[in-house]
Amino acid sequence: MLKLILNRLAHSVVVMLAVALIAFSMVAFLGDPISNMVGQDTTVAERAALRENLGLNDPLPVQFVRFLSHAVQGDFGLSYSLRVPVSELFAERMPATLELSIISAIFALLIGIPLGIHTAINRDSFTTQAILSSSLVGVSLPTFLIGILLILIFGVMLRWLPTFGRGDVVMIGGWSTGLLTSSGLRSLVLPVATLTIFQLTLIIRLVRAEMMEVLRTDFIKFARARGIRRKALNYRHALKNTMMPVITVVGLQLGNIIAFSLITESVFQWPGMGLLFVQAIGNADIPVMVAYLMIIALIFVLINLIVDLLHFVLDPRLHSSGAN
Amino acid sequence: MFKSFSHFLQSDLVYNFTRSRVAVGSAVVALLIIAASMLAPVLSPQNPFDLMSLDIMESNLPPAWESGGDPKFLLGTDDQGRDMLSATLYGLRISLIIGVLSVALSLLVGVTLGLVSGYLGGIVDTLIMRVADVQLSFPAILIALIVDGAFRILLDKEMHDRAAIYVIILAIAASGWVQYARTVRSCVLSEKGKEYVEAARIIGLGPVLIMVRHILPNVMGPVFVVATLHIAMAIIIEATLSFLGLGLPPTTPSLGTLIRTGNEYLFSGDWWITIFPGAALMIFSLSVNLFGDWLRDAMNPKLL
Q1: pTM (predicted TM-score)
Q2: pLDDT tens across B86-106, in order?
Q3: Residues B186/B233, Cβ–Cβ less than 8 Å
Q4: What is the CA radius of gyration of chain A?
Q5: Contact state of A137 with B152 under an 8 Å Cβ cutoff
Q6: I need a labelling partner for A110 at 20 to 30 A (CA). Which of A295, B32, B164, B223 fits?
Q7: DSSP-derived 3-state class of residue A78
Q8: What ranges do the domains of chain A cover?
């Protein structure tokens, strides 16, 4: 057990180091940080002094280690375009992204898993066909187009819901939340719907595929031969065994939702990390890009780690194999 | 060549294809769209690149059937007075070209790495697959954004605008090669032990020849399935990047840039600038996805 956990941890650390190396090479090889920090009238000597001060003349491995130690402390320097510490920018915007992503994930799961199970059990029913065809439409619709269509229908034509920003937010500690005001909640509806629809289609298809796989196995055939009632068979025996891969998928989807929220955020001008990142790319604002990359990588790695450990807790087969 | 073609016509695949209404329907729609976009210069009433033919007085006109519409512009005009029908056709053309080229590039890289990885095994395999694993844990759109961002830092604004189309192709290709590499690798692993490969090795053929001439033809089936679905994906990524303002410059009307322009006029009620390119994008990727889904099921009889 311990060995398995250590193994997973080591894997996570390697992934983070790889991402950090990519992020670092963006800082080190692309663009010149000095010319982004000083004005036109700075002399060559002053620039050279600044360069020496910042340690940009040190050997690359030394610089990389310094970059790592700063990154671990959440220090990514100043944003080139906004002249504010990057960590402050992200601290301010993280709640917006997390609220949007987590609420969408909950909706996508609550709707997607039952629909997936339904389509796997009643394979040829009319509702299944309807769900599957509409889910294919969902796969073919890019996220931003879903958002635009929702804005057009509910914002422009019906004028029911706000189409940009978060509305009024309330500060709780350092966390700004839109969940406690009516304008904040109303602002959430369309972005959440956009993200949910996109994820929903994937979850339905994955749950269905997994469930059908399980329904084909010998132990289900055997249970059927034993005369176990159809309902008990589907929900007790099959579903239990479907949940394993579904947890994996859900974990990966959660990471995807956070990443895909950057498109949703751009469509709805949602003041989250994704919008910040998109603007940073447009402005070639390296520190912000690097910080976003590292934060997203960290979220992905943590989710993967949790999923792996959950597997271990939930799947009794892994207990014995983990021991040797 | 001719013989192998008639052979192909008699295969199960073609038989199944003609019996599936979804497959035929989606293939016909996709081919029609491809044909229309390739014939854009002939079909479209106006050349949206020709600034002389544009009249700013004719901007933001609604489609012909709405009140205030001009019969000259069937689907209305955008903010520069470009005919939306022509712009959409030209936009489709650019999106399709980017889609096909980036798929070709990632196919080339992915298949090569997959072949090498699967056939040679050992440290090369571990190295390639580790990189693939790490990359696969990030969404394709994020990889494409980062590659694009790197080029934005590297090139100045004007140069980037001029090179935008190549940067995008590279960005999409960089985000897509893993799928091919993994598919090919797993096929190669199962082909490697077969007798024909052993026979080729015994008669003294080198590894490159065995990989390219003997194994490659036997692993291309799944690669085609991946490539078909990837085309829809690539076009969606291109549109997304351009929509975010990080793809093509507005002077080059791809579907994404058209939708982006239209988005700015959505609130004044000018829905047609966004909806027509959006619909073109959706119909095309839907038909390609439907066809790709069918192809996957048809080529992989194990899965139902």
Answers
A1: 0.84
A2: 888 888 888 999 999 999 999
A3: no
A4: 24
A5: no
A6: A295
A7: strand
A8: 87-273
